[in-house]
Specification:
By secondary structure, this protein is α+β, with helices and mostly antiparallel strands. The protein has a domain of about 230 residues: FAD/NAD(P)-binding domain. The strands form four sheets. An eight-stranded mixed sheet has the order 6-5-14-15-16-13-17-20. Helix 8 packs antiparallel against helix 9. The structure holds 8-demethyl-8-dimethylamino-flavin-adenine-dinucleotide (RFL) and P-hydroxybenzoic acid. P-hydroxybenzoic acid binds next to strand 15. The site of 8-demethyl-8-dimethylamino-flavin-adenine-dinucleotide has 37 residues, from helix 1, strand 9, strand 13 and helix 8. This is p-hydroxybenzoate 3-monooxygenase. Keywords: FAD, Flavoprotein, Monooxygenase, Oxidoreductase. InterPro entries: FAD-bd, FAD/NAD-bd_sf, RIFMO-like.
Length: about 400
């Protein structure tokens, strides 16, 4: 098989890239180890920054998103048993976030690719990327029948998530990784129950820790709470989950959850991770393959989409003009934003989660930080600016500033 761009992974990053390339007449093949049903049903993120929504709409992918997405101009923090609201609209100069499930974004893009006869190879695993230092890289794949094939291409996009194979293709002498694994996980549920607040609510309880109340529609709640990373789902029958969530919500300002059937449960470990550089010769990493943020802050998918908003124009410029300037600057351009978003996600996690071996003083500091956040315009503005989404970085990197490891040829 032959294509211009081989894309590993049909998550939001890989799919959006193949769609944007297609709009400019550039051919790609997406390789995805899972089935279409699995990818479309995978329950994950829900909060889209305005920049992500605008990019999807501009690319003709906004029909359901604009109809069904819930616009949130506020975010709540509940601590000390009381609710406090940040007015994102006011603090960020009229910006907001949109709640729309990641699996819907994935479904919308797959539908658009299928309608355009796009090539997505489901249940096909990328096993190895070969010849990345040559002008003709290849991806070795294995189909669901166990058949081995090669895809020959000009550029490779590594959008295969944290556990993919792309990142390891970068020689270990060049790849640097930065990581922090948190001493807690998130237990998340999707429940057929109307949300009790009409915006995302971060809850902090000094003894019991973090909880998050979000939603997918007016009748579906998406709820999370911090738990021990070694905890097993079997130990969390439905009633125990509701009881624990309610304990984290106790306080003077009453707030009672509506309990309903739990449709889905999962435990997600929490980490911060960055790989540098994000490109090597003809391989370009995007999304979770290059960086992970803890989900507090709701940034993972947005960051993946932001990478693609830099990568797609760079690839298009290369195929249209032969220029490698934007591709060579890709890693540096993305990493400036990545580190700022890593900082935000880490700081919101630290501000709202209990860590082992803390003193009562440490926990009271956390409540004081939240109090400052929700009562100071300066602090609220900083939070809002990050939560609605920082602007994309400019790709105009000077030759002298460019990381020589990322130069394509
Ligand atoms: P994905 O979505 O992981 O897709 C990678 C794809 O690559 C495939 N793959 C391979 N295919 C072929 N060959 C191989 N060798 C392969 N190895 C892997 C995989 O099957 C998969 O389909 O990465 P991508 O596209 O970079 O997208 C990243 C996002 O999925 C992720 O950052 C977000 O879900 C994170 N996240 C959130 N992000 C937000 O922006 N807002 C949120 O509100 C938000 N909430 C969340 C989240 C993630 C969560 N979990 C479960 C980790 C809440 C949670 C609980
Ligand atoms: C979600 O709705 O899934 C969600 C909301 C806010 C977060 C993370 C996830 O910080």
């Amino acid at each position: 098989m032959q294509t211009q761009v081989a894309i590993l992974g049909a998550g939001p990053a890989g799919l959006f890239l193949s769609h944007l390339l297609h709009l400019q007449g550039i051919d790609s093949i997406v390789i995805e180890s899972r089935s279409r049903d699995y990818v479309e049903g995978r329950l994950r993120a829900g909060v889209l920054e305005k920049g992500t929504v605008d990019a999807l709409v501009e690319a003709g992918l906004g029909e359901s998103l604009l109809r069904e997405g819930l616009r949130h101009k506020e975010i709540n923090f509940r601590f000390g048993g009381r609710n406090h609201t940040l007015d994102l609209d006011d603090l960020s100069g009229g910006r907001y976030v949109t709640v729309y499930g990641q699996q819907k974004v994935v479904k919308d893009i797959i539908a658009a690719r299928m309608a355009a006869q796009g090539k997505i190879l489901f249940e096909t695993k990328a096993e190895e990327i070969l010849g990345i230092e040559t002008t003709n890289p290849r991806v070795r794949i294995v189909t669901k029948n166990g058949e081995q094939q090669e895809i020959s291409c000009e550029l490779v996009a590594g959008c295969d998530g944290f556990h993919g194979i792309s990142r390891e293709t970068i020689p270990s002498s060049i790849l640097k990784t930065f990581e922090r694994v948190y001493p807690f996980a998130w237990l998340g549920i999707l429940a057929e129950a109307p949300p009790i607040f009409n915006c995302v609510t971060n809850v902090y309880h000094e003894e019991r820790g973090f909880a998050l109340l979000s939603m997918r529609s007016r009748t579906l709640s998406r709820l999370y709470m911090q738990c021990d990373p070694n905890e097993k789902l079997e130990d969390w029958p439905d009633e125990r989950i509701w009881d624990e969530l309610e304990r984290r919500l106790e306080g003077t300002e009453k707030c009672t959850l509506v309990r309903g059937p739990i449709l889905n449960k999962g435990i997600t470990p929490m980490r911060s991770f960055v790989a540098e550089p994000m490109s090597y010769r003809r391989l370009f990493l995007a999304g979770d393959s290059a960086h992970i943020v803890p989900p507090t802050g709701a940034k993972g998918m947005n960051l993946a989409m932001a990478d693609i908003r830099v990568l797609a124009p760079a690839m298009i410029d290369y195929f249209k003009t032969g220029a490698t300037r934007l591709l060579d600057a890709y890693s540096d351009t993305c990493l400036r934003r990545v580190w700022k978003v890593e900082r935000f996600s880490w700081s919101v996690t630290s501000m709202t989660h209990n860590f082992p071996e803390e003193s009562r003083f440490d926990r009271r500091m956390r409540s004081a930080t939240l109090d400052y956040l929700t009562s100071s315009k300066a602090s609220g503005t900083t939070f809002a600016e990050n939560f609605v989404g920082l602007p994309l970085e400019n790709s105009e990197v000077q030759d002298s500033e460019r990381d020589p490891r990322t130069v394509m040829l």
